[in-house]
Every structure is written in structure tokens, then in C-alpha cells.
Amino acid sequence: MKAIQQPARRRFALSGLAFGATVLAARGAQAADAPAAPARASGPIVLHGVSPRLTVHALDTFHGAAAAGLRIDFSAFDGEDYALLRSVTLNANGRSDEPLLIGDSYRPGRYQLLLHVDEYFAAKKAALPAPAFLTKLPVRFQVANAGERIHLPIQFGPWAYTYSRGS
Q: What are the boundaries of each domain within the chain?
């Protein structure tokens, strides 16, 4: 029985794919043997003309939008408990109209944001089971250096939330 010969272009393409797979496999093996580089710490973000500050940005993952209308209680730790500094309602972009801390008010310390997500989802008339799984979300963090700009992006839904330090 005579074997069917493949056209030259097909053989060329298949040999190119085989060669590429060999190269990628070799590079993957080299990368697996190399020690992982440590995460690099970055210094404070310096924006010309913008002073260090603390800002927040909340995103509603349930509706896929900025958390416009979310009420947040902002507190500072006074040595025994968290004392309310002020309450803010987030604007249409999911941000406070002004930084939470700026200028002389921006000092090292322990702080808390308390997000009233139960009120937020009720105001949005979200069809959620009752009772709500999450009601008030505490976000606790520490400012170690008041010379750095800190931005807190927060993502939340009816069943989970996450936040991180941004700049």
C-alpha cells in the first residue's frame, strides 16, 4: 500500500509547529529551574503638585458598576476602639468627592472604612435572598508613612469583597 504524500506546504507548517513547541518547552523548563524573583516594593507615588492623600474607589461587582450612593463610615483607631471621623456617600464614579485624608489630617495611624452594603443593595432594589449574607463590610488598614499617597480600590458584591492598596 502506498502512503499518501502530504503537500510541501503542510509538511513545512507541521515542522514549524513542532519546532516552536520544542523551543517553548525548553524555555518553560529553564523558567521552572530559575529562582523566582522577589516582588519589588515601590516607593511612594509622587505626582507633581498633588499632595499625599488617602482616597477610596468602590465597585459593585453584582451590578458591574461604580458604587454610586454607597455610604461609608470612616474611623480612626483611638487606642481602644475606632472613633468615627466622618461619613461619606460615594459619587457617580464610586469615589468620595474629596480625599478621606489630606494635608494636616493625613497622619500615620490605624483606620477603618465601614461599608453599608445592606443599605446600598436595598436602595438599588437588588433581588437578593433575605437575610443578607453581608451587611456591613469593615476595611481595616494602617498608614505607616503620611508622605505616601494611598488609594483603596474596593470591589464588593452580596457574597464577597476584596480590597488592596493602590497608589
A: 53-163
Q: Grid coordinates representing 59?
A: 465597585
- Tally of CA atoms within 13 A in the half-sphere of 104 that contains its CB: 0
Over residues 23-39, the pLDDT tens digits come to: 667 666 665 565 655 54
User: Which residue from 100, 93, 52 is spatially nearest to 73, judged by alpha carbons?
Assistant: 100
Tens of pLDDT, residues 67-114: 999 999 999 999 999 999 999 999 999 999 999 999 999 999 999 999
Radius of gyration of the chain (CA): 26
| CA 92 – CA 94 distance, rounded (Å) | 6
> CATH for 53-163, among 2.60.40.180, 3.40.50.1110, 2.40.40.20, 1.10.357.10?
2.60.40.180
Between the CA atoms of 116, 120, 123 and 128, what dihedral angle is there, to the nearest 10 degrees?
-110
